[in-house]
Specification:
Structural class: alpha/beta
Shape: globular
Largest sheet: 8 strands, mixed
Radius of gyration: 25 Å
Number of strands: 19
Strand order of the largest sheet: 6-7-5-4-8-9-11-10
Number of helices: 20
């Protein structure tokens, strides 16, 4: 019976993602998988990057959709866009860009592997997309008519080239880096030729070093000292942003962080490039050391000229023996989200029917504003008004529009309500606790980094005070007292 259940589960999963088994021109069996209306061929060993050049990970669907929405937002600002998917593998990401955004983007997909390039070209044929041989032709704006008449709906340039080489050779408006592991080896080349106000998105999958499981590798790749903390995912995101900011500064460029997402399998950072030494200096100023208490896990960014132990608001240094504080970093101390950009990403997700990531983007919007989801009553109306404003602002100054996207900086890091719960007490429900913190006068929101995390401008002592006030004794203590009283009466 268990084998039957397992077989049913596999069949159901395969059908849900559009799984088909076929045979290629070389006689080798492959799978055809459909995602966001885009078909790609997959070899049987596509889940093992060490054994297959055409690696494909179904768990990265959220990452691909977030990257797509960020590109769609940039396409609203200027067209046409020169876009680069520097690590094509199967080519699914670049093909999704071309298939859904059509003539507003000029997509280039590269990979160093010959077999990957061959697979990408075959996947272009599967999706009725023309492979560019070096000279671009006018594209068909109406994808439906193009497919009906057999005319390619879009054109994609596919090249066998190292990512560093093509980024040095040509300028791009949008660059996506998604190597196997860390992306630090490609950041200098990415910032060398990216256009002003362009966007670079970086996906890092080396979670062992990012999440403090291999601190020696972390120091080698990112130049940061970190330890395992309750807020380790945001620590990883700020560490990647710091590395990106340093690479940009070496090219006399600054960055504006549009979003940073850290989930189980990856860390995604999307930044806008701001050209000029002044912008580079402003970004460099936001690279600071973090002071972390090893006992209570309170943390605060270290300002220049301050003593380490005097910086922390907790009193562990005076009440506990030994060294209580350590310095982590250097890390990015600025905001991780841009509210206006995230709102336009949500609009793009709705437009392209990406239902899977809409709850995540809404959480990011709340996190960027440090508000609860209930307080976000102006979500749909703001999206509608934003669309109306766009029509009138097309001839306006783009820089002014970008400045209007900025919002009040959110508090850095978060506290886990489970980590700081009081022993022998039942803590309130998380949403209720958020309400109690708001009533106490603090900014508060949930965070996508941790389902039990609370982002707030309250200190840990204030956080614990509110938690203690609204926690009630456990039922076990009460029942134990009643049992002892009944036993005394019996005696």
């Amino acid at each position: 019976m268990s084998l039957m259940r397992e077989q049913y589960r596999k069949n159901h999963t395969n059908l849900s993602v559009g799984f088909i088994v076929a045979t290629g021109s070389s006689g080798q069996a492959y799978e055809i998988m459909k995602e966001l209306g885009t078909n790609v061929q997959l070899l049987p060993n596509h889940t093992t990057p060490q054994k297959s050049d055409t690696y494909f990970n179904r768990k990265m669907k959220t990452n691909r959709q977030l990257v797509f929405c960020s590109l769609a937002v940039l396409a609203e600002e200027r067209t046409p866009l020169e876009c680069l998917d520097a690590f094509g593998a199967t080519g699914i990401m670049g093909l999704q860009w071309a298939k859904h955004l059509l003539n507003v983007v000029r997509v280039t997909i590269t990979d160093i592997s010959e077999s990957c390039v061959k697979m990408i070209k075959e996947n272009c044929k599967l999706n009725n997309i023309r492979v560019d041989g070096g000279t671009r032709v006018p594209r068909v704006s109406d994808g439906a008519n193009g497919e009906a008449e057999g005319v390619p709906i879009a054109t994609v340039e596919v090249a066998k080239m190292d990512a560093n080489v093509i980024m040095h050779l040509r300028p791009f408006d949008y660059i996506h880096l998604d190597p196997f592991g860390t992306a630090v080896n490609y950041l200098d080349a990415a910032f060398r030729n990216v256009r002003n106000l362009g966007i670079i998105s970086v996906t890092s999958t080396d979670t062992g070093s990012l999440y403090a499981k291999s601190p020696n590798v972390t120091l080698r790749h990112y130049g940061c000292h970190i330890v395992r903390t309750e807020y380790y995912k945001e620590l990883a995101a700020r560490m990647v942003v710091a590395t990106v900011a340093r690479a940009a500064a070496r090219c006399n460029k600054g960055i504006e962080v549009l979003l940073a997402v850290a989930l189980e399998h990856f860390v995604l950072v999307v930044v806008r490039v701001l050209r000029g030494p002044m912008q580079a200096d402003e970004s460099a100023k936001k690279l600071q050391k973090l002071v972390h208490c090893q006992w209570c896990e309170e943390r605060v960014f270290l300002k220049q000229g301050n003593m380490v132990d005097d910086t922390l608001p907790c009193n562990c240094h005076g009440s506990l023996p030994g060294k209580t504080a350590v310095q982590l970093g250097p890390l990015w101390s600025g905001p991780l989200f841009n509210t206006g950009f995230l709102r336009r990403m949500l609009s793009a997700a709705m437009k392209h029917s990406m239902d899977d990531i809409q709850p995540l983007v809404k959480t990011l919007i709340c996190e960027s504003e440090c508000t609860t989801l209930k307080s976000l009553v102006h979500g749909p109306s703001a999206l509608t008004n934003q669309g109306k404003r766009k029509i009138g602002d097309e001839s306006g100054n783009l820089v002014k529009k970008l400045k209007s996207d900025t919002s009040l900086d959110h508090p850095p890091f978060y506290y886990s309500i489970h980590r700081h719960s009081i022993r022998g007490m039942n803590m309130p429900k998380l949403n209720k606790f958020l309400q109690y913190l708001t009533e106490a006068g603090f900014r508060v929101s949930r965070t996508h980094f941790d389902p039990t995390g609370v982002r707030t401008d309250a200190t840990l002592l204030q956080f614990k005070a509110v938690l203690t006030k609204y926690s009630i004794p456990t039922c076990t203590n009460a029942s134990t007292t009643q049992t002892s009283m009944s036993m005394e009466k019996t005696v």
